[in-house]
Structures are given as structure tokens and as C-alpha cells.
């Protein structure tokens, strides 16, 4: 039954349509003999930000008798249903704010749905000075249209990297073997930094995340069905990594962090952040340093060829790496008027790393007879740098929220790896059977990014809002690889493996969004048009690829509230995932004596239609059902090179991927001091294609489980236990093996919360292994690996400045506006 459902697109389209229509019809299926009204509204602070979990009371105006009560949701909204017709007022209370009361309202027959203007509460300075609020956001926070990982609140995330944290996020899987990231079982994720695309290849993105300290991250947001306002790139959605910004308090404040760790080798980290806000000016800056050494153990069994040409390879590899990472950010905001902000920001990173790999390769024929030993060493030095600037402007025209935002960005990324390879051929007794092979590569990859965008928001009234905007981006990637081989003590250029590849891409986009919000219903629809022009040119091979195409990307969002605590929604969006320019580069990269990689200049974009039905209870417990169909799937493929008797790793377009997924997230408050957050993702992947005259049908039912336990103890002690497990998963032509880990952390606040000290241990049971199995196109590969994942870390943070400084009204830059569009602060 399940497989037949997967194969029947029409059945699912029909069921999705019927379920959406049934949600719409519920609006008209309830009738009451006695007319009653609905009262709704939102609670905000003076900055217009929502106040979640505020107490809301509906009282009679005559004697203040309580009629109904409730708590605002994560968006600060509240709803009272089935209210008898009479005269009322709404009273609101929130910790740290002065109580507020609405103007009287009279419910009458001609208006059974009443929207109260936003109730804005003022901060109570006396309460803020006297009360210590110990509550904080959970590590995993589920809102209606995205999942938020609050990294800065996690004890087990201290001292790690962005990639470590991403592994713990619900529905996220990192394929370390192929440097690919997937979300809910689907690859093609758009990774963004502070709301902006990185424009890097998948390998470079993983390198960037591996070299980004977790101490510099505020939160990570997972958006599976973005609206037309966002770039259409990202087959499975968007992962937006938000770095820490300056404080919003007047005066000077900041913090200093130091830490150290040890697994099999030492690690260390440190960081400094400062912020000064005075008058109409705000300046901020931060710097983080991360140092570490780590080990990776790898084994593989490979069998390829036919008949008498079968070759069997057993490989063992030991990898030793060291990195030094510098990450910085600086900027300033200026408010020339009450409703205007101009901002300038500069951020970047620099990484200097070394990587030494020792490969032991033993070759056999199809009958298991020994052929040769081919030990190989690969000594790599890597310099990675990134520098980005942003100039932004925002103006708000009225209290309804009419506003204009403008962004201009320039970024430059450099990637310079150098490798020295030494390969020997030995017989069974370790005697040379051929001269040693000395090779070296010198690579230079430079990416230049220029982009700009304009967004205009026009609220027609308090229910109807129009949005439109335009964006352009120019990306130039220049990759120059020189490969040399030593012959007779002279280094000579290898023309077959040397390549200079230049890739230029221009994307121009416009979008329109319309949103309507009623008492119980919300509808948002939009469409985005993108024109893409890309040119890939191999200077060495004299090959040129020139493409132009225009695409439309519609999106639709429908939600309905049922009472105060229940909300249903249905969404649809169309996405595109363009090939990485590194995958388009036809140059050859040697992995080991029997395996090499070559790019594919003929790759086509992949397109995805994504449907989702969702339910939320109190904005915390969520259930989502999704269906996604991707055409021209971009996936890694391993095939036999009959000319060289090697395995060729490349990237191809498979016919299609069908994905069904169910995700459930729910919090459990066991006691006042013990809070649990659980999430479960179950998904079914089916990859289908015909490649080299062979049919592929790779399917797998998989599950991802995440848990987070938070403990609050007396004497300012807190603790945290997190864990996850990813079951085996189908990915392209391979099956990824299951893996998981459990991590623990404890923290102690010191000196009236002036400082805190933390201790954490990652991968307690040392279960964080990775691997895959491939059996396609006469090539069988079994791959296993073990990272240095069990690490104990100690950290200390000291807060600078006067912690009692009063907060100033928030002045957002246009990049902060992007943060507001994708989730709460």
C-alpha cells in the first residue's frame, strides 16, 4: 500500500487537495443557535516585538469580572472564542513589564469577529532591577514555519564547530564522505550566513562550517518551505546560520570567552565581543579564534570490473589534521531619524590548515590473488579566507508597517590548497615492483560575489499586506589547478590533470507576495521569477558551456486557528537547485591510486515541488506531513573507468527522487527543573534512473530522532543532555549507514551571573561513525570511518560592562529585518 502510494503522484495530489479543501470547509460547518463572538489580538513591547507567554484576561467592563483567560503564543497572539455578546476589556500581564488594559469594546450582532489593536507594554525598570529571570529558550524550538536551534543557549555546543551543532539539528544529516548536507532526507540545501547565500560549493560550505566556532553562533534556522521572498535555490529548503550580534543595551557591554578541549588531540578556543550604543549610534565587533587537531580512521572495500578484469581493493587510511581559524565581525548602525536606519557591516574568516593522510592500498584480482601493495601519502596545506561587506538602509513610513529596505553586498572568498602525493608499488614481501610516483598539485580558487536587493512592504490595512522586491547577483568563480609529476628529478606539468576553469553566473529576480490575516484564517501567496545566465569555461580543455533560462517559482501558505491552542496549515512551494560550479569543472582530482574524481560540465539544474500539511498545539507541539518530488536529481555516482581500471567518482543527473516525510516535535515538562524536547522525522526516499544502460531503484524508509534534556538545579547550576540517531538512508546511488551520539554538559553561574563556567563531553559512547554502501554500475564500495568525536571541553565566559544598563529601543538594520522575517529573536 505504501509503495503504491509513492508511485501514484495523482493519488497524493488529490489527497493533498482534498485535505486542504476540508480545512477550508470547516469554516462553514459549525453553526450555533446563540450568536457568540471571537476576540483576537497581539501583545507587543514598545519596540513592536511580540511578547510570548504573556497572561491575557478577558474581563467585563462593568465589574472587571473574569470571563476567559489564556496565554499568548510564540508570536504574541491570543484568541478568545465563543464569547457572549457584551462589553469587555482585555487585561495583560508579563514578567518585567507594566500591566496593560485595552480600551472597552462592545460585541454586537453585526460584528462577531473583533480584532483589538496591538497592546504594547512598557518595561518596568523596577521589576527588571529586582527580578532575576532564569528562563531561557530551549535548544530546539519549533515554530509554525521553521525549526530554530538556539545554539547560544546550549551547554553541549560550547567549544565545537558549526558542523557539530548542525549534526544535532532535527532532520539534518551531514555526509562527511561526499561533503553534502541534507534536510529531511533530501539534498540540495541552501546554506546562508545571516540571511545571505554563501555562493560556495558543497565542499567549501562544509569547510566553512567545520572552521566556524560554535561560540560565534546565535541560532540556526531550518526553513523547509520558504516563501517567494527568498531565493528559489535550495531543493530541500534553507539552513540559515545566524551569528551573534552586538547587545541592544545603551553604553558599553561585551564578553570574553576562553576554552580548551581534548579528545585524542588537543583543542582550544577564545572569543571577544564588544558593543557600544550611544545616542543615534551603535557600534559592535567580535573576534573568535579556534585551534585544534583531530584524527580520522577510514577503511573501505572496493570491487569493480567484470569477469577476468575484476579488481578488489582493501584500503586503510589514517588522517591527521590541524586547523587555525580566525573569525571576526564589525559594524555600525546610525539612525538619522526616528524611522530610519543606515548600517554598515564587515565580517570574515581566515583559516590555515594542514591535512596528512596515509593510505594503505592492497589490490587483488577477482579470484582473491594478490596483485600489489600501493601505499600512498597525501600531504595537504590549505588557506581559506572569506571577507564580506554589507551596506543597508531601512525606512518605516507609518505605524502599519509600510517600509522600504535596501541591501548591497560584496564578498570575496579564496581557497588555496596545495598537495604533495607519494605513491609506491610493492610486492607481497614489500619489495618495489615499479619506481615510486611523486606528484603535486597547486590549486587556486577565488569567488567574487556582488549582489543587491530592494524590498517594499505595503500593508493595505491591519489584515491585508502586499510585498514586492527585486534582487540581482553576480558570481564569478576562478579555479586554477596545476598538477605536476616528477620525472627524472624534474617536475613536469601533467596536461591531463591540469585545468583552469572560470564560471560566471548572473541571477536576476523579482517577486510579489500577498498576505491576508483574519480572525481564524491566514493566507499568503506569492510568485518569484528568476532569470539565470551562466557561463562555464575550461581554458585548458577549450570547452565552454553557456546557458540561459527563466523559471517561475510559486508558493502558497494557508493556516487556520481552532481555538486558542490549535493551528492547521498547508503549504506548497517550487524550488531549484543549480549545480555547484565545482561540480561543473571537468578537472581530475586524485583520491588514491584506484579512485579519482572528475566534474561534469553537462549537469542540469534540479527542480522540486514541495507540499506540506502541518498542525501545531500551543505553538510547541508540531506534526508535519510532507511530499516532495525532484526531477533531474543531482547526485554523486561511482562508475568503472575501463581504460584506466580505476573507479571514477563524478556527479550526474538522476531521473527523479520521491520523498515522503513525517516530522513530530513536542516538549515535555517533567518537573519544574527538568524540561525535555523531542523530535522525530520519518521519511521515505526513492531514487530512480537509468544510467549506463542500468536501472537504479534505490529506496529506503528512514528515521531521525533528536532529544534534548535541560535541567535547572539550585545554586545556579544547569545541565543538559542531547542525543540523536540517524538510521540508514538512501542517497543517490548509495545507502548511508546509521549513526548517532549522546552528549552531556554542565554549567555554573558565578559572581551574580557576571561569569559562568562550563564542562561538556561530546559523543559519550563513541558511536559517531560514518559510512556508506554502493553497488551500482559494476562497482561495489563499502566505506566506514570514525571521527575524533568524543571530546571533553572546559569553557569560561566573563561578561564586561554594566549588566544593569537599560536597553534602548531596537533599531534594526535591513539585515536584521531579514532575521525578523525568518523567526523570533
UniProtKB/TrEMBL annotation:
Residues 395-798 form the Outer membrane protein beta-barrel domain. The keyword Membrane applies. SUPFAM superfamilies: Carboxypeptidase regulatory domain-like, Porins. Residues 805-825 are annotated as: Disordered. InterPro entries: Beta-barrel_TonB_sf, CarboxyPept-like_regulatory, OMP_b-brl_3, Plug_dom_sf. One of its GO terms (cellular component) is cell outer membrane. Keywords: Cell outer membrane, Membrane, Plasmid, Receptor. It comes from the Bacteria. It is found in: Cell outer membrane. Residues 813-825 have a biased composition (Basic and acidic residues). Pfam families: CarboxypepD_reg (PF13620), OMP_b-brl_3 (PF14905). Its main location: membrane. The keyword DNA-binding does not apply. PANTHER family: PLUG DOMAIN-CONTAINING PROTEIN, TONB-DEPENDENT RECEPTOR-LIKE BETA-BARREL DOMAIN-CONTAINING PROTEIN. This is TonB-dependent receptor. It comes from Fibrisoma limi BUZ 3.
